[in-house]
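U., I forgot to send this yesterday:
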Amino acid sequence: MLPAYKGRINRKTFVLGNAIGLGVLGFVALIYIVPVAIIDILVSGAGGSSTVFKVLYSLFAIPALFFFFYASVLFVKRMHDIGYPGLLLLWSFIILEVVSHLINLWFLNIIVFFVLAAVCALPGQKERNTFGPKPNKKFKLESLVVRF
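Result:
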């Protein structure tokens, strides 16, 4: 297992870490996708995107994958704080989300939403568990750093 997936984080760190990650991803989208879209509209018009612009749009998958990895690390560490094996639940969560999109079962997205809400709401274990010591109550920015 990657060292990044070891340890525990509290609820505040989980929520703020995801908010910061989404903010960074949104900023990258704003400075990358918006100019590409404007140039695409000016060059291609209403006729649709050319292959070059489709490739440029798909390059946004790179920062999105970085965010996915970062969010998965936060999810696993938060599950460790609650007392569950994070990687097992992460893979279950990913499979549930992929199946909901492939088969178009919209109600599975509601289940995913409630799982995330539960991860945000459930308190962590008050003592040391098999995943490490109890995290600090105070938010520290260094607890969001992913170490390999």
